[in-house]
Design brief:
By secondary structure, this protein is an alpha/beta fold. The protein contains two helices and eight strands, in the order βαββββαβββ. The strands form two sheets. A four-stranded mixed beta sheet has the order 1-4-3-2, covered by helices on one side. A hairpin with a 3-residue loop joins β2 and β3 (about 35-40). The radius of gyration is 15 Å and the shape is globular. About 20% of the residues are buried.
Length: about 120
């Protein structure tokens, strides 16, 4: 059976330049391509963005979960970036510390790491 090698969620955006700057400030390497398409990568994770002709609604926004080695450090970095909204860290009850970051289009990036 063929193996799956990577995953790259494709998230909607109403403004590719704005979302590119947003993810740069979060520490991603961002590239804007022709045709209203962009990519963001960090530590082997890839996100793709496609520009819509209209604003993204809450129903049209995407969500992604990243397992990370240190949710508290990433949380500090993303709060310090001053972009988007990053929730407080919380324990959802299954042995991890998590937070959620919402970008300007309403896409949610949740992240967490095991509680030591």
């Amino acid at each position: 059976m063929p193996r799956l090698l990577s995953l790259a969620p494709i998230l909607p955006t109403a403004d590719l330049a704005r979302v590119a700057e947003h993810y740069r400030l979060l520490g991603f390497d961002v590239r804007v391509h022709d045709g209203g398409y962009g990519t963001a990568s960090r530590d082997g994770f890839n996100l793709h963005f496609h520009q819509l002709d209209e604003p993204v609604t809450a129903q049209g926004a995407g969500a992604v979960y990243f397992a990370v080695d240190d949710a508290e450090a990433l949380h500090r970095d993303w709060v310090a970036s001053g972009v988007g909204e990053t929730s407080d860290l919380f324990d959802p009850g299954f042995g991890v510390r998590e937070a959620a970051h919402t970008d300007p289009d309403g896409n949610v990036i949740r992240f967490g790491s095991p509680i030591p």
